[in-house]
Structure formats: C-alpha cells, structure tokens
Amino acid sequence: MRPIRTCLCLLLSSVVLAACGGGSNDDGPGASGDYDARITRTEFGIPHIVADDFGSLGYGFGYAFAEDNVCVLLEDLLTIRGERARYFGRDGSYTIRASGSTANNVDSDFFWKLVATEEVVSNLRDTASREVRDATAGYAAGLNRYIRELQGGEHAGRHQACRDAAWLTEISTDDMYRRYYRLSILAGASALTSEIANVTPPLLGRSDGSDAASVDGTDPERLRRAIEAGEITPEDMPLSRPLPIGSNMYALGGETTTTGQSMLFGNPHFPWSGTERLYAAHLTIPGELDIMGSTLYGVPAILIGFNNDFAWSHTVSTAHRFTFYQLVVNPLNPMEYFYEGELRRIEEVPLEIEVLEEDGSLSTETRSLYRSHFGPMVEISAAGLPPVLGWDLLRGFTLRDANAENNRLLDQFFAWNRADSFDEFKRLHGEILGVPWVNTIATGPGAEVYYGDVTVVPNVTDEQKADCQSPIIGPLVDQLMAGLPVLRGNRAECEWQTDADAPAPGIFGPANLPTLERSDWVHNCNDSYWLTNPAEPLTGFDRIIGDENAERTLRTRLCILQIQDRLAGSDGLNGNRFSFEQLKDVTVSSQIYSARLARDAVLADLCDGNQPACDVIANWDGTGSPDSRGAHLWREFWREASGANNLWQTPFSNEDPVNTPRDLNTGALGVGRALGDAVDRIEGLGIALDAPLGELQVSGVNDADGAAIPVPGGEQFEGAFTIAGSGTLSENGYPVTFGNSYIHAVTWENGRVRAEGFVTYSQSTDPANPHFSDFTEAYAERAWHRFPFSRAEIAAQSIREYRISE
After folding, report:
1. Distance separating alpha carbons of residues 84 and 94, to the nearest angstrom
2. 504 contact partners, CB below 8 Å, separation of at least 6
3. At residue 535, does pLDDT exceed 80?
4. Which of 190, 247, 528, 764 is catalytic?
5. Of 29, 340, 524, 744, which has the fewest CB atoms closer than 10 Å, so is most exposed?
6. Do 421 and 508 reside in the same domain of the chain?
7. What's this model's pTM, rounded to 2 decimal places?
C-alpha cells in the first residue's frame, strides 16, 4: 500500500503544476498550437499520455519524463555532444554502466566527437519514418518547455542536481538522434571508448631528430606466452564476455498455464543509475496506437511492452556486433594500408574540445583520431602488457560496427508500438530487422510463444572466418574474446557478406538468425539461443551469433529448471501448470541455484572447524529474500569457491546440459578454505553470520525518508534468478546499484490485457519527487502493482491529470 505521505505529496504537486500553467483538468496555455497532450499520472507516478498525433505524443512524453529525470538525461546528452570536459573539467570520468566502459572526460569528448558526427545524425534523421521524426521533435520540445520553466524559477525545490547548473540548457533534435546512436553502439564501439580515443600512429621520426621508429605494436609471440602463463585472461579484455547488463524472460503457451491463456514475464537487469534506467509509461493515439511498458531514458517509444493484442520482452544477446580488421600497413608510411594490392589512406580526423580548468577558465585541446574505410582505428592493451592490438610499422587494427550503420532502431520500435496483432509483431521483427543487441520473446492472447535473436549481426559465416581470419593474431584474440573475428583487412573477399533477405548490406537476414515458435514455452536468460527450449535445441548457426553445445550459466540453468519443475509439479506448489500468481511468485522467489547444487556437499565435507557457519548455512532458506539469514555467508563463500579449478566432479555433458556440471568437488584447491575465508571476512566487518539479508542488501540509489530499503535477490555468479548487483560485501553491506529494473508479468483475461510489475528503483531520480522511492518500497515487499491499461483502470488509479500545449 502506498504511504499516506506520498498521497499528500502528489496532491501538493498537482496544485503546484496547475499554478505554473501545466493545468489540472484544463486546456492550459496555447491549446491551439502545434502540440497538445493530455497526461494522467497513476499510482507510482506512471504517466499515461494521450495525443492526436505523434508530435504531440512526443511532446507530452518529453515533458512528463523531464518532470522526473531531466538532470540525468541532460548530463548524458552533453556528454555525447563531446562537451563533458567543458562543464565538468578534465579530471572526471564517464561510465557507460551498461557496457562497463569508463573513460576520462577528455577521452570521452574526443571519442564522441569522432563517432557521433553530423553525417551520422543526418542519416538517422533523414532515413527515419515520419512518426519517428515527429515524436522526436515533440519530445525535445516537451523537454525544453520544462527546462525553460526550471530556468524561470518554477518547480521550487526540484532537480537540485542541475537547476542552477551552466549545463541546464535546451536541447536540439540532433541531441535526440545522438542518443539513439549511443544506444545502438552500446554493444560495440562505445564499449571501446578509451581504446579508440587514444590511438596514435607509429612515428617515423623522434622529437630529437633521430630516424628510429617509435613502435609499440602487437608482439604475437609475447601475447601467446602471456595467455599461456595466465598473465592476461578474458577478464582483462573489454567485451570479452557478454555485456554486464542482462535479463530473464519467459513466454508460456496455453498448454502450460492453468487458464489455458498465454503468459509472459520480462525482467531486464540494468543499472540503477544513469540513462540506462527504464521508465514506465503508456502512450495512446486514439485509433492508431495504444501501448504500455517501459523505455530507456530519452527514447519516445515503448521498448518492452504490452497491450490487448500482444506482449514482449528482451534479453541481451550473445551475438557480436562488430569485428576487428587487421590492416597491412605500408612500412614506409604507416598512415597507409594495403587493400587489394593498392594503397589506401588512413584518414586523420582533427578534433577540438573545450576543457574547464581548475581556475574556472576554458582552454582548447586538440587531438587527431584515425579511421580506415572500415571504421575507427583501435588499440587494446591489458594487464600492463604490450598491446594485444596495436599499431606499428607492420600492422594496425580497426573495427567495423554493424550498429553504427543501423538506422532502423527507432523505426523498429515505433512499428511494433503501432502493430495491430501478434502476427504483425512477428512479421515486423524480421522485416525491419532494426533491433540492435537484444533477444526478443513475445506472445498474444490465445497465441503460441515466439523467440528470436533477430538482431543486427555482422554477416561473417564460419566459413568466411576460417578463410579470412588473421592467421596469427586472430586465434589469440579468440582465446580472449571468444567468437569475435579478427579479419584480414587487405582483401575485398573479407568484407562482410549480405544475405538476400537482409534489409541492409553487411548483416545476416532473418532466415539465418535463430527463431523458435512453440505451443508450450520459450525462455532466454542471457546465454545463447541454443537451449531456448531444451526439447528443441537451436543449432547450425554461425559462431558470431552465439555458442552451441556449451555449458550454460547457473542462472540459465535455474531459469529452465523453474519452468521444468513447475510443469513436473515438483516445486512444492499446487498443480503442474502456471497460474498467473504462481508465475509472479516463482519469478521473484529469489532462489540461489548454487545452494541447490552444492549446499549438501558443503555441510557434509567442510564443517570441521566451521560449525557455527555450517549451522547458519543449514538453517538458511536457500534464497536471497530480505528475511533470509545466511544468504550473505553463502554468497561470500561461493565468491571464493567458484573460481577453483575442477570445481565439479561431474563435468558438463551435451546429453544433460541443464543438470551439468554438478556435484561440488570439496577437495578442489580453493573450495576447502573458501568457507573459512568467508567467515573471517564477514566477522572482520563486524557483521553477524546470521544477519538478515535485508539489513545488508539495500537500495544504493534511493531511500524512504533516510531509511534503507531492503532489496531481494542475489548475484549472477551464485546462480540467482532475481538479480541484485552490488559487488563484494563491505562495511556498508550490499548497496544495490544494478539488477532487476523494470519487471512485468502479462496475461489476458476476457480479451483484455492484465499486466503487473515494478520499476524497482522507482520512476524518478530526483530526491524531491514523490516517486523517488515509492516503487522501490513496493518491490521490497514484493507487492506487485497492477499496471492500469483500460480507461476504467486508469481512472481508478488516477492521482493527477493535466494538459500541456504550445
């Protein structure tokens, strides 16, 4: 139940907005202008925006979003304009939390100046559909209206993080397209910001006038030895693993549910701060569009959603979105490379940024960066060793990013938002093929269930990789960044291929990408497409898309087992199908799969000298629930133990991929001492071994009147399904800054959609906003919220109505 204090805040907020011209149930100023939108806020601050055209819809969306999160979005927009150092100085940094990439402000500015060019912006704008262009312009106008109101002194007490900042400035529509571009290349070039921003060509002469070449390039033999000795591992490399963001999702057909009606569950695991937070909204143009769900900050479309006709969700795909190319450098002039026997010039791109100095003055800094016809030049180093990929007088490395060429992203989601049926949704998936880096599942009322990794993937077949991979560097990089090709950059036959059904050159078409339709169930929990449903493994796809016949993560195995156990009736719940309530319960039950696999062995073999700890583990309920006692002890034990060699006695088997590997090897080096090490560390922090997890694992981004909000869940590495990411235990416990974000469970009843869920970190990043922590409090109690979709449901939950026009 929402606290009374929140209701009072909402009432006061409504009165204030009416006084400021937004209006409460009135036409507001300029009702006959270009934009006119009606907004109803329902419980937890969810905006339901109704307009007669896409421009007005975007305008209302931009204004409503700005009310909640203007500072966070504006900081990101100035960053991708290449102005971060101008406002925050040279000493700060910028992290794209969704990719794990961090760059200092200066490097960040030069990177974005290089890649987010006017040419990129104009291509995205000019090729977008009319609906995208109108909504984008409207969104910017709505955001700007709110910025002007802040600058004029309205909305007292709100947005203290930026209301008086020099960077609180109106945005352009070009800023919006840069935002779309940044999202497109999240799994590609932007994860290599520093590696692109610090590329320097080898010098043919030194500053002292000597002729010796200054070269610090790739040494293949040194790299080989470093890999063999473990001096450099995949953990040292950018993008060596899937993106740090993730998700869980299920689609259940009618034969697996108690109602005979299909159901869907979606649960992205995204950062709890920054612009990769998700924001819940409902968008309506009568007779043309009626869609609800969530979107990333600054995007005027629903990216994960539902309506009366279909529902869908996404998880991060394992496919690679770019490839490296090894250039054969002209040793007499390293600014040239050979291509088909002819020399091509490496383009030097002079760039200029402004930097705020410590004395408050602005200085100008220049730098040249470089690109080939494939894309930007790149240098990658790791573990303090000579470059893995470096530029010398023999070779240089460049990358081509398929999503840097993807101008269909927003068209994809706008078309989905407007789709009339589940069948149309599926058709549009492959027809537009604009999804950049996520798997999709979907279903509709009475429909089968659908999965597709129909995404933008470089068209590099296994055969082409075998023919074109760099013969020395390629296999070494493959050990560090599995499946990522390093192709020969001197041969035209090594350019990406194009399928006949692909909507753009250089990518796979839908016929060569994994899809599956079934009547029972499909899932994805961030491993590849292979075991979407173990009864029908998907095989025969090229390695760049994902791995097959390979060990799955603990989380994926638990994802599958939760469905299999429910359908077998072996999970302790009633029956052997999913009711809607059981679907909700299972998906937030916070099970820890490593405990299911290994707790008995720990209690049997490792309790000598660890009896108090073993008593706690024996009495622990095996979950990451806030009231669980011992969850932190198991987590810290497993953090130490899971890295041991020969961890399992029964190895992975293709014959039983869901249940292997298994049987903890308690005699493995590292496992035996892990429990004692965990106890020492916890007690050294002054934390009780049997402390309730809810006292330790709390929101790291919001609170309720200064009170910590417990967060359920666990970490990916321990086999949690409900994710609460915080890092290693400290004296501050586990402050959660990553994990479950937007959650929805969807079904249909009597021809109408029923959807329930959460925005785990709440709708607003502004501490003065009444919706800064209310949804987080509900999530702490696992009190599912019914998302109001029909007019009657919206009216019943309405807490504020207003109209904005200009």
Report:
1. 8
2. 405, 406, 408, 433
3. yes
4. 247
5. 340
6. yes
7. 0.94
